[in-house]
Amino acid sequence: CRDLENHHHEKLLEISINTLEKILKGELDEDLPDNLRALFVDKDTIVNAVGASHDIHLLKIDNREDELVTRTNSWCAHLVDTIHKNEIMRNRRRVKEINQYIDHIQNELDNLECGDVI
Hints:
This protein is mainly alpha-helical and 118 residues long. It has one domain (1-116). It has helices at 2-25, 34-37, 43-111, 114-117. The longest helix is centred in the middle third of the chain and has 69 residues, at 43-111. It is rod-shaped and about 115 Å long. This is Leucine rich repeat containing 48.
């Protein structure tokens, strides 16, 4: 986005300066609105207006990037927490299952009569 904005800024500045030159030479046939004609006073005004527009666009791009990074980091942290909790629960269920199996085998051994083995 920044590369596209920089390219757009360069083209807009080029077009604006060319338009200013045409206005100063009287070659522009189109009627421009008064608020637009006020920008085409001199080269410094044009460069400042286009630069301000460029700065605002870059600020919006930066703000959007910050928002995306923040939301992505939040999502990632939530995902890791969920996975961690699920693994803890899975581990506890597995340990419980192993303990129940040990208790079952112990009961089977206790109930086994020694005479049957010998």
